[in-house]
Each structure stands twice: as structure tokens, then as C-alpha cells.
Design brief:
alpha+beta, 22 strands, 851 residues, 32 helices
Length: 851
């Protein structure tokens, strides 16, 4: 299909100007690749046409997921853990996931390691050894993972809907498997499944990033092509009979927030109506201007959040509507959703809504192509599941030809009561071109300017994609808030992104989203931000929206109340999941009277007390010149845009921001504390006072964090691999400017919490004593370097990093010497940091266990 026959707008045609290339190896394996030479990284993915629906006589046993785990446990060339170690030594990231209809293994790494990446992946997927002792060990790990799904409200809700919606199709079984069936799986069953499904002919390899075409083909011949073609037998996947009546599942438990999930049966993504269903979902459930959000949240105040999406893989799927609400409003919310859907099926949609949804789809396509890993995933989707590399073009041609009447008819066909299944979970108190390689592009340095009132602007032009990002950021968070209204910064950021003196929140969102643009807000422990993402043609509209949000917010009482209720609901939802609940308790007990004891959203009691006058006062304190930073990245004209942003910032007063970073002497509580929660598993935490983000030694802390979170490192190996004590284990840092909390954590069985702490002791003792092999330290450094490379692909991420660095008074482009600074850190530096920061006398241990 050629561009001149497609009828697509030029902006879309530019996305499809570079087509992927396909080669089929002699053993039947298909390889799809596309070059993206701007950054020296590469992503390789292996898509196996085998997921939980292909398990034959063992449906429901979780064979595919179990096998995914086992393919990290050794090959006939490598021992257990060696794959991950070699990838991390390259600075790469290896992982995998299992879905209903596929299993995907992938490695992201530096371009120069392409040959090694292909060799590692081919060995992993086609040469696995499935050691007997590792099968037994990993079975225990997955049993814990199965138990953990019983502690996750969203997973419980999702499983409930699928078992309700499907009676015959294997979608009714969770991908991880049902415990009684999983317990019957042994090595012989795994090996038989592996040999029958992991055949070259049943795989698609996708490659995206910076590489030479001829080099790729040569390396493929040396790796994947060396494995012979096998016999691939067809698998019969039971079909689902037509649904004849409404189905429902109502669950109740110890929860503080109600959750609902509604699913209408829809055809597969190969169906001619699939693009229209995505447009329908975008109109009713995407962005702030979606029909359901406006009706249910803004007008009726029935829900805290609501969205719609289409899930229709290669098999018929579901049109989802998902919402959260106060438990006593669930029934009314469900009725209002159904009423709204019926009304839309009757009255239809406007041309403006259709245009806006088309722009949503365009933006989503841009985002999927922004990074090499995103592109590799996109290629896998269209090659392995759809079987048509030109599907994205055909998809947009279909969308481009849609009319409002087409959508109305599609809504009428979709929103049928007999086609609907509903699940609720409520509180129990409620009833590039093929012809050659593209040239590498080097991005310019960020330019900067400080204005007379102390405000600062930073910008970097990157016209690789037709998008621009403008980010306003300032210091804020608990340290800048009165104790009585903790959480106010988070609420302020949200309310600034709502009504202004000139337009309602809907009018703002509708105007931007119609152009494929977005205004978003974020907040954290130390900062808050407003950001607009726009097309180059609409950048002035984005600046106007940002200007009015910052300078002319309305602070309507009704809006403040609605967003405050949503923030409180979020805090309540954190108390429903055991790991999040444990983090909340850890903050409170570790920081005591210090502001960081509170989550950035506050506590439920403080957040509930915030009103419009509080937000106005906080705005006056925080929105001042010396506390204001704007960063612009992407495709824009600096000569036009920067003067506009200067005029915006110069309207802020030049007074200094109030608030500071209070000193922190150490944990408010030492020793061991225990909390209870009515769940199946336990979580454990071990916390120490940290140095914060500003000191240079913080980079040593990042390196130590990487060592302790390494999936092939001693801590992970001891806790999970050797002793099967936990499904997840790692480390994290909660940082202020010059203080913080460094903690280790794990999810484990209540009876093995003490054993996990024993492993923590052993690993930290080793590090404090400087017993870190040089190769282990270098591997961690390499992983961090490559991870930074991948992060810097995104203009939006670069804008965020620059804004934070500017606010923290650090070099704004601190990544320029990042690798050199890492290389300067030695074993003794890490050991000294561990001895000083992770000192036993400063330790707090927290265990959250079942009642």
C-alpha cells in the first residue's frame, strides 16, 4: 500500500515512512526489525506464540508462566542465574512476561552488544535445560506468587470478571494458574510442553534500535539459525459460545474503596470493527473530557476514577469500563454507567469527539515508537498476533474513514445487556527505510536563562517526533506544608489542572484533547509539577492552558471537594494492598514528627481538612519566581516559544518560597515493630537513615541500591533462589534534599520473616566488610549506565530530570558525566557508605503480618 492511495494526513504518513523489514530463517523463525539510530541502544524481543490458552490437556495449570520462570534457570550451556548475570554485565536488562496468548522474552542493551544479546536469547528460549532441583525451587516461589494475588484487590477483581465472562474459553483461567492444577505440574510435563511449543516456527524475533542491517543478519545466522526446525502440532483452543444473558459477580471484603469492572464481549483485534472500538473507548473513557468521567465524576460525583479500554487480542475479548468509588455508591455508579452507554448508543457522538479520539490514537502511536523497546513491542504485536506488518497503517486508514454514525451503530452493537459481565469488589461494611542505515543524530545541550525574578527556563529542541513537552516545576511537598494540611501540595497540583477563571475543567480538557494535547499534574516528596504535551501546531494552546492554570486558577469549592475526595480515596486504596500499607506504616514510624512521616498525599485526616483557602495560601507561597522552573523539549521553535514562556514566568512575584528541609537526626523508632493486616502474606522492611538527593555520596547510595536489587545478586539469590523465602525482594530509597530513608523489603510467608531478616543481615554484613567482588560492582554500574541511556531516549523524561536537577541546584544535565562518576566509585566507597548509613544501631525493622 502506498502513501498516495491511503488518504492519511501527512503527519500520519510521516510515521509510516520507514517500514520494518522481515526475514525468515531456514528453520522457520521469523525476524522483524527496524532501525532507530538516534541513541546507541538496541532492544531484542522473542515472541512465542504460546500462552496460557495453549496448554492443551493442562489448561489452568499455569504451564506457560511456570516455563517462563524456568527459562531463567539455566540452559545446556549456562547454569542457573548465569543468563541474568551476563546480561547485567553488558549493562542490559533481561526480563519476560506471560499473557493469555503469548510469552515474550526480551533484552534491552547497548548497541555494541547486539551479537551477545542474540546469542543469550537464542540460548535461553531454544536450549533450556530445566534442572530438576530448580523446578522444585521455582514451584515454591510461584506458589507464593499465587498466594500474593489473593492480597491484590485489582487482581482479585480482574480474575472475578474473567471467570464470570468466560465459561468455555481458557480466558477463564488465570495466566499464573489455579493452585490445585499448578501443584500437579512436574518437570516431565514442563519439558513436554517446552519441546512442543518452543519451536523456531512458532516464534517471532523483533529487533529495534541502533544497528547495521548486515551485522544483524550475520548475527542471526550465528545464533537463532543454528537451531533446527521442529514439528509443530496445532493446539485446539476451546471457543466461547455466544453469551445470552447478563452475568455478574459481587465480592466483599476488608477494603476501604469500592471497585467495579464491566466487560462487554467484542471481536478480536483482527476484526474490521476493532479500530472503531478503540475510538469508542477513547471518547467515553480517556482523558479528563471523556463522557463517562464528565458524567459520573464531575456531574454526579459517583466515582473517584473511571476509564474505558479495549482488550481484544488475537481472540475475541472485552470492552472494559473500570471505576473506583465509595462503597455505598457502587450500585448507583453501575446504573449510571449503563444509562450513559445506552444514551450514547441512541444519540451518538459529535464530530469534535471523533476528531479528538483520532488524535488520541495518533499520540499513542507516537509514544509506542519513542523508544527502541516500545518499537520492538509494537513490531511483535503486529507480526506475531495480527500477522500483518502494515496493520498500523490499515488501522489508521480505518479510523480516518470512520463517521459519527459508524460509531453510534458500533456503540449500539456493543452496549447490549446480554453481552455484559460485571464484577465488583466492595467493602464488607456495604451491602527507519529498508535501503540503508539512518545517520546518528546528536541532540544539542539544554540552553538556559534566568529571569529577573529568579525564575529559570531550560530548553532543548528535538524534532525527531512531532510532539513538544513543556514542564513547570517547583519545590513543594510535606516540608512546605503546615502539619494540619499535609497533602495540600498534591491537591494543589491537581486543582491547578482543573477550572480556571476563564474556562471549566471540561472546556480546557476538551479543547486540548481535541488537538491531541494533554495537561497533567504530578507531585511527590519534594516537588510538584504541571506539564503540557502538545503537537507543534498546537503549542500556543498548550502555553495558554499552562498560563491560566498557574496564574488564574478558579479554586471552585465543588472542584476542590471532588478532587480532595479522590485524593482521600487514593490514600484509602493504599491501605488495601499490604506492601503499600507497610510503606505507609514505615514512613510514620521511621520519620516520627518529621514532615516525611506523611505520604505526599497526606494522611486521611489531614487531607480531608484541606479547603480552597488553604490551597490559595499554599499557591501564593510556592508559585514565586525563585521557585519556578520551566523546561521545554521536543519539536518547537525556540525563537517563538521561549519569549512566550518568559512573559508567563515574569508574572510570578520575586519573593523567596517559604518552607525548608528540616533536619533529621535519625529514625523516630528503633528496633523491631510489628503490625497486622488481614491478608495471606507478610511483608518485611529494614530501614536506615539516608543522605538525600543533594550530596554527591547519593550516587554511591544509588549504586548500593542497585546491588541490593540485582535479580542475580547475592541478596535475591539467597532469599528467593536458594531458600524460596519470598517472591519479591529488593531495596529502595525515600529521599528528601539532605535526608531520607534507605530500606530493604520482601514479601514472604508469616513463618519465614525472621529468615528473611537473617538474609538481610548476611548480605549487609558482606557489603559493610567490603566483600564485594569487583565484577559484581562493575556489573551493577553497567546496568545503571544502560538504564540511564534508555531513560534519556524520552524527551519527556529529559524534561523531568532537568527540572528536578534545577530545583535541587545540581548540574541540570548531570547525565553528561554520569558514567564517569559511576566509574570513580570503588568497593571501599560502597562499603564505607554501608557502614555509615546502613549502621545496625540506626536500624528499624517492620513486619506486617496476618492477624
Amino acid at each position: 500500500m502506498t502513501a498516495r492511495n491511503s488518504g492519511l494526513p501527512p503527519s500520519l504518513e510521516s510515521l509510516f515512512a520507514q517500514s520494518p523489514e522481515t526475514v525468515v530463517l531456514g528453520n522457520g523463525l521469523k525476524v522483524v526489525f527496524q532501525q532507530q539510530a538516534a541513541h546507541p541502544v538496541v532492544s531484542v524481543q522473542v515472541w512465542i506464540n504460546s500462552g496460557s490458552i495453549h496448554e492443551g490437556n493442562h489448561l489452568g495449570s499455569g504451564l506457560s508462566h511456570f516455563l517462563e520462570h524456568m527459562l531463567f534457570k539455566g540452559t545446556h550451556k549456562r547454569g542457573p542465574g548465569q543468563l541474568a548475570s551476563e546480561v547485567q554485565a553488558l549493562g542490559g536488562n533481561i526480563n519476560a512476561y506471560t499473557a493469555f496468548d503469548r510469552t515474550v522474552y526480551y533484552i534491552d542493551g547497548p548497541s555494541e552488544a547486539l551479537g551477545q544479546i542474540l546469542e543469550l536469547l537464542s540460548d535461553q528460549v531454544l536450549n533450556a535445560s530445566l534442572p530438576e532441583e530448580e523446578v522444585a525451587r521455582e514451584r515454591d516461589v510461584i506458589l507464593r506468587e499465587i498466594d500474593m494475588t489473593l492480597d491484590d484487590p485489582d487482581r482479585i477483581l480482574g480474575r472475578s470478571l474473567f471467570t464470570t465472562a468466560y465459561n468455555q474459553h481458557p480466558f477463564k483461567y488465570p495466566v499464573i494458574g489455579l493452585r490445585p492444577l499448578f501443584e500437579q505440574v512436574d518437570r516431565a510435563i514442563l519439558e513436554a510442553y517446552y519441546k512442543s511449543r518452543y519451536q523456531p516456527e512458532n516464534m517471532v524475533v523483533t529487533v529495534a534500535g541502533c544497528f547495521e542491517r548486515e551485522t544483524l543478519l550475520k548475527e542471526l545466522e550465528a545464533t537463532f539459525a543454528q537451531f533446527p526446525r521442529g514439528c509443530l502440532s496445532p493446539v485446539n483452543v476451546p471457543r466461547e459460545e455466544a453469551q445470552l444473558a447478563f452475568r455478574e459477580s459481587r465480592l466483599y471484603g476488608d477494603y476501604r474503596i469500592g471497585r467495579g469492572l464491566m466487560g462487554f464481549k467484542v471481536p478480536s483485534m483482527r476484526d474490521v470493527d476493532s479500530p472503531g472500538l478503540d475510538i469508542l473507548a477513547a471518547i467515553i473513557g480517556s482523558g479528563h473530557s471523556g463522557r463517562l468521567r464528565q458524567k459520573l465524576r464531575e456531574e454526579l460525583h459517583l466515582v473517584h476514577g473511571i476509564s474505558a479500554s479495549t482488550w481484544n487480542p488475537a481472540n475475541p475479548g472485552l470492552f472494559f469500563i473500570q471505576y473506583s468509588c465509595d462503597g455505598d455508591k457502587a450500585e448507583a455508579a453501575e446504573a449510571a454507567i449503563l444509562e450513559t452507554c445506552r444514551e450514547l448508543a441512541s444519540t451518538g457522538f459529535t464530530q469534535a469527539e471523533l476528531d479528538k479520539a483520532r488524535n488520541f490514537a495518533f499520540v499513542s502511536e507516537i509514544h509506542s515508537r519513542q523508544t527502541s523497546s516500545g518499537m520492538a513491542s509494537r513490531l511483535g504485536l503486529v507480526a506475531a498476533l495480527v500477522g500483518d506488518l502494515h496493520y498500523p497503517r490499515r488501522y489508521f486508514e480505518k479510523i480516518h474513514g470512520l463517521t459519527t454514525e459508524d460509531l453510534r451503530q458500533l456503540a449500539n452493537e456493543t452496549f447490549q445487556q446480554n453481552n455484559l459481565s460485571v464484577a465488583t469488589l466492595l467493602p464488607d461494611t456495604v451491602d527507519n527505510s529498508r535501503s540503508g542505515d539512518s545517520a546518528k543524530k546528536v541532540l544539542p545541550a539544554f540552553a538556559e536563562k534566568t529571569l529577573s525574578n529568579g525564575a529559570r527556563i531550560y530548553w532543548q529542541k528535538d524534532a525527531n517526533l512531532p510532539r513538544a513537552w513543556i514542564r513547570f516545576a517547583g519545590l513543594g511537598g510535606p516540608s512546605h506544608e503546615p502539619e494540619s494540611i499535609r497533602g495540600a501540595t498534591s491537591l494543589l497540583a491537581t486543582v491547578l489542572n482543573r477550572d480556571t477563571e476563564f474556562k471549566t475543567a471540561f472546556e480546557i480538557a476538551d479543547e486540548l484533547e481535541t488537538e491531541g494535547c494533554f495537561l497533567s499534574d504530578t507531585s511527590g516528596n519534594n516537588t510538584f509539577a504541571l506539564a503540557v504535551e502538545v503537537t507543534p501546531q498546537s503549542i500556543n494552546k498548550g502555553i495558554d492552558a499552562l498560563r491560566n492554570a498557574l496564574l488564574h486558577p478558579a479554586f471552585n469549592d465543588e472542584t476542590v471537594k471532588r478532587e480532595r475526595d479522590a485524593q482521600v480515596a487514593h490514600l484509602k486504596s493504599l491501605e488495601d494492598e499490604i506492601l503499600d500499607y507497610g510503606k505507609l506504616i514505615l514512613r510514620q514510624r521511621f520519620f516520627g514528627e518529621h514532615p516525611f512521616a506523611d505520604h505526599p498525599c497526606g494522611q486521611i485526616e489531614t487531607a480531608e481538612s484541606i479547603d480552597a483557602s488553604d490551597l490559595r495560601q499554599l499557591k501564593d507561597k510556592l508559585l514565586v519566581g525563585p521557585n519556578a522552573v520551566i523546561v521545554v523539549t521536543g519539536d518547537f521553535d525556540p525563537d517563538v516559544i521561549i519569549p512566550e514562556l518568559e512573559q508567563l514566568l515574569l508574572q510570578l512575584p520575586d519573593s523567596l518560597p517559604e518552607g525548608d528541609s528540616p533536619s533529621f537526626a535519625g529514625p523516630a523508632t528503633l528496633g523491631e515493630i510489628h503490625e497486622t493486616m488481614d491478608r495471606e502474606q507478610s511483608v518485611v522492611f529494614e530501614a536506615y537513615p539516608d543522605v538525600g538527593v543533594k550530596p554527591e555520596t547519593s550516587l554511591v547510595g544509588d549504586l548500593l541500591n542497585e546491588l541490593l536489587s540485582d535479580m542475580s545478586g547475592p541478596l535475591f539469590t539467597a532469599v528467593r533462589e536458594e531458600r524460596s523465602l519470598a517472591y519479591y525482594v529488593g531495596a529502595s530509597r525515600l529521599l528528601g534534599l539532605e535526608h531520607g530513608c534507605f530500606y530493604l523489603y520482601a514479601g514472604t510467608h508469616p513463618s519465614t520473616a525472621a529468615d528473611v531478616f537473617e538474609c538481610f543481615d548476611s548480605e549487609l554484613g558482606r557489603i559493610r566488610g567490603g566483600q564485594i567482588p569487583e565484577e559484581e560492582l562493575e556489573a551493577a554500574k553497567t546496568r545503571m549506565k544502560v538504564s540511564k541511556r534508555f531513560a534519556l531516549q524520552s524527551p519527556r523524561t529529559r524534561a523531568s530530570i532537568v527540572a528536578l536537577n534545577a530545583l535541587f541546584r545540581k548540574p541540570v544535565m548531570d547525565w553528561l558525566d554520569y558514567e564517569e562518576r559511576l566509574d570513580a566509585i570503588g568497593v571501599e566507597d560502597v562499603a564505607a557508605f554501608a557502614r555509615d548509613v546502613l549502621a545496625t544501631e540506626k536500624r528499624l525493622r517492620l513486619t506486617v503480618s496476618p492477624n
